Amino acid sequence: MNLERLEKNLTDNIKEAQLKLGYDNRPMSLNYMSTSLENLLGVPVTDDVLSAFQGYTLPRLGELAFRPIKDGICITIPAEGTSYVNSLSGYDFLEALIKKVSSHASLEEVTAVFGEYSDNFAVEESDSEEFDLLVYFPDKCPDEYYYCLAAEPCISGGCHVTYHRFIREDYEEMFSN
After folding, report:
1. Domain definitions of the chain by residue range
2. Interatomic CA distance for residues 59 and 158, integer angstroms
3. What sign does the CA torsion over 18, 21, 27, 28 have?
4. Helices then strands (H, E): number in the chain?
């Protein structure tokens, strides 16, 4: 059971929201599909597994709350946990990516951010209607996520690129033929 990987994913998602929206010292709820939780944990999700995860993260994130949702679980992190995540460093790449995406940059400019943080990154064109490029770091440095970039049409105010990020297993389940 990989409790560390789930905690890292949870903190990464909280940090991403904080970078995008700001930190407001409140609890945060995140919805996870059961398949994603199983991919992260490496085992089926049961009450015992969630209890073990809660105990594992208690010193850092406080007492998590779990609520079933359709096809998954909503995890609520208390304010003390979001405060802990706000204090974490090591998110320079994600911060730069979010800043570039929010600046109405082109797809090429957004992709260039990956090269600023590693010489070892992959760019694959997509045949999906949902996104244009898949970009990731094969050696998982600075992170393990698969980024699906989509370029929206350029208008007078500039271009707009959106991204969605996935763990490898979720990406493969969603987009592999």
Report:
1. 3-86, 92-175
2. 45
3. negative
4. 7, 7
Three-state DSSP state, 158: strand
Q: What is the DSSP letter of 173?
A: H
Tens digit of each residue's pLDDT (9 = 90 or more) over 148-169: 999 876 665 566 888 999 999 9
Residue with tokens 């500039």: 158
Coil vs helix vs strand at 109 = helix
Tokens of 47: 């009450």
Separation of alpha carbons 64 and 41, rounded Å: 17
176 — phi, psi (to 5°)?
-80, 140
What pTM, to 2 d.p., does this model score? 0.90
Q: Is 143 helix (H, G, I), strand (E, B) or coil?
A: coil
Length of the chain: 177
